[in-house]
Design brief:
Helix content is 32%, strand content 31%. The protein has helices at 26-32, 36-43, 52-62, 114-128, 144-152, 181-187, 190-194; strands at 16-20, 72-78, 83-93, 98-105, 134-140, 156-167, 170-180. The longest helix has 15 residues, at 114-128.
């Protein structure tokens, strides 16, 4: 097989590359399912104890950009090929032009900008290729890293649903963020966009 040249590749930037999730990525899923704090912040609940079979089945189900879960899943890799996270894209409301993105970064790679870099790729795809109009994000209170990332991306806090999510023995607030295409266009560097 020929060596792949990535210099004009849409699905990467100076920090990460997105690729289709693969059935072989099940070990990453299995390992990260043991991070209960991250699972609670992302899914707003504590999952049952992980199993190898569950991770293999889930990885098979979401592999190869399959959309049979309603979401399209990507692996987030460094440019050297190390998997550092998973991100998914949900644009099931094309009529209204809204979409969601969710991600999980491995605990060993958090705070290094990988999540923000991956979000930038999917935001560009949604706004500039899919003609979508608004990103909608929903975060559990206490998700400090995701709140900071959303602000860095230019998202605005649009609301607070008080005591909307029950987890860890209490009702927690749900923080709503949004980013319109108009606001996105004010922030992006078109010289970098046109190079892709």
């Amino acid at each position: 097989m020929r060596e792949i040249v990535y210099e004009n590749y849409f699905w990467q930037n100076d920090l990460v590359r997105l690729r289709a999730w693969s059935p072989e990525d099940w070990e990453w899923d299995y390992y990260n399912n043991f991070d209960t704090s991250a699972m609670r912040l992302g899914d707003c609940e504590v999952p049952f104890p992980p199993t190898v079979l569950e991770s293999k089945n889930f990885s098979e189900k979401i592999a190869n950009l399959s959309n049979n879960t309603g979401r399209t899943y990507f692996a987030i890799e460094t440019l050297e090929g190390t998997i550092v996270g998973r991100i998914n894209f949900n644009n099931n409301d094309e009529r209204n032009g809204t979409f969601e993105i969710a991600l999980l970064i491995d605990r060993d790679y958090r705070g290094k900008g990988y999540g923000t870099a991956a979000m930038k790729i999917l935001l560009q795809y949604a706004f500039m290729e899919k003609r979508l109009n608004k990103y909608c994000g929903s975060l559990l209170e206490g998700n400090i890293g995701s709140v900071a990332m959303h602000k860095k991306l230019g998202c605005q806090q649009e609301g607070l649903c008080k005591e909307n999510i029950y987890t860890n023995g209490r009702y927690c607030d749900e923080i709503l963020f949004g980013l319109t295409k108009e606001d996105y266009l004010k922030m992006i560097d078109f010289t970098n966009y046109t190079k892709r």
